[in-house]
Amino acid sequence: MSLSDKTNVTTTERDDRKSIRKQKRAHHRLLRDMNIKCTEQPTQHLMICNGGLVTGIKRETLQCVLDPLISKYTLIMPTSKSYCFVTCSSKEDATCVYNYIHGRIKLPGQNGPLYVCYTETVSIIDYVVPDPAFPSGLTLMENFITEEQEKILLETLNWDKCKNVIDLHTLATVWSQLKYRDVKHFGYEFEYDTNLVNPDKPIEPIPQEYKFLQTLFDKHGHKYAYDQLTINRYLPGQGIPPHIDTHSVFEDTILSLSLGSTWVMNFKKEDKKIDVLLPARSLLIMTGEARYAWTHGICPRYSDVIKTENGPTSQERGIRVSFTFRKVRHGECYCDFKNYCDTAKRETFIDDKTASGLESSYVHKVYEEICNHFSETRHKQWPNVTKFLESLEEGTLLLDVGCGNGKYLRGNQNVYKMGCDHSSGLMGICRKRSFEVLQCNCLYLPYKNDSVDAIISIAVIHHLSTEERRLRAISEIVRVLRPKGRCLIYVWAMEQCRNSQDSLYLKSGKKSKESEKINQSKINHERISECNLTLPIHENRMVFPQSDMLVPWTKRSGEHFLRYYHVFRDGELARLCTKISLASIKEVYYDQGNWCVILEKCTKIIE
């Protein structure tokens, strides 16, 4: 035997050993994944061990290999797997495919040849990934711009010059090279180390050559004056980790325009996963739940699995450029998605035991101390409360829960009025005025079910320090109401600091020039040792830094007190009321720094 013959034998033996190792690994993987056994005896079923969607092989590529060999077969490519199956019409056809492919055929982009095994059965599921509806608030508009407009946008970018700190527009534009992609910012810089934006530090504004996009946004109903633009460039193999754009940094609607290449973006919320194909020139619109509660990201890979009429296949990625437009938020976020909100996560958690102690010290005891001074400041009825009272029929039995000094128990002799309050001092003032009142806790109203025609509760519920206690108080009000009876509830609004001219609380405060300069970082806090709690003090009569606050009260003597308030966000009171099965919401409105709701008791439980 010649030396060359010995070399060829050695190479063949080495290839055979490698082939056997590959097949054994495939045996174990398939048994583990799908409980399918491989066999050494020829069958109609083949497994291509290292040729699947995950390895970047397209369905069309395998079809080009199989079509010249056999006329009839079924190609099954499970998603998220590195292997696939071929079912032939006969064992003879399967043997032909095995002998031709196994260890011999190398596809473009593969490091080595394909390896094949016979299997007893195959997976009967070709396309496993479901095709659910988009998350609420997610919209995709294809061909949002023309190919010519896409070309113009891409030509405005010169990433190589950016790397030399020379920008196409000005040196003020921020460019950075991240681990997964290249990024450019306009308007405001997004700080990736803190996930925040400094709204007081603008950079180069969005270039004029991009302004036509704002016109297109307006045309389709997205009329935000977008002031922040992030341009990302992704090369094949790059991506962006799953994330939710910081709530307190940007307003609700976010628009992302895809250019260059078609890629897949992954959306996830808890156990829900959705893959969204983003074609070139398409506009992705994220608002509501999709913007606030679903993470979105791009897996770093060189190809994506996409769905076609013939089943899933692999599609190689090119260079993708995205233009993401946002509106910078000035202030905190007041969304409905507290579990995902950075504003809500900064707020105080108060358990029931702490709540009772907090309300005793910073609500009940304070009102006993300030009741006379408080009463002197409470004379005039609020117009919309008076309007509600005047709408009541003659002979109505009205209850004022948290009646204070009884200012709403005056007038209209055709309505029988009674009140209750926790403060014995305020009840004493009411009795001197001959009002029908009793002292009680609003969490436990001492009245029978269905016994009162109408109820008002003005500026009371916001003194309860947990959602459970606030819900119980409203439930007690509804319990006491007769069927078809109505109640009116007022609570302080977080938004009153944005509408200071409409807020009695803010207009009554004396703001100095110095106090106007106080920002959130300088707000004082009160340490409540017996409750193991620290709360901010609302001294500047400007923005509320969070929902749970201590609000000062100063008597004429100069003595200071702090009252606890839970300041309600837009929609919070209404959402709370929807949890009460026996009540329906008739009206919600904003009035003089308060969120207000009118409820009607139903004759049967609302399903």
Automatic annotation (TrEMBL):
Subcellular location: Cytoplasm; Nucleus
CDD domains according to UniProt: AdoMet_MTases, RRM_ALKBH8
Gene3D superfamilies in UniProt: 3.30.70.330, Alpha-ketoglutarate-dependent dioxygenase AlkB-like, Vaccinia Virus protein VP39
Listed GO biological process terms: tRNA methylation; tRNA wobble uridine modification
Co-factor(s): Fe(2+)
GO CC terms of this entry: cytoplasm; nucleus
Protein name per the record: Fe2OG dioxygenase domain-containing protein
An annotated Gene Ontology molecular function: S-adenosylmethionine-dependent methyltransferase activity
Pfam family, one: 2OG-FeII_Oxy_2
Encoding gene (name): 105619235
InterPro entries per the UniProt record, alphabetical: AlkB-like, AlkB-like_sf, AlkB_tRNA_MeTrf/Diox, ALKBH8_RRM, Methyltransf_11, Nucleotide-bd_a/b_plait_sf, Oxoglu/Fe-dep_dioxygenase_dom, RBD_domain_sf
Compositional bias of kind Polar residues: 1-11
Organism: Atta cephalotes (Leafcutter ant)
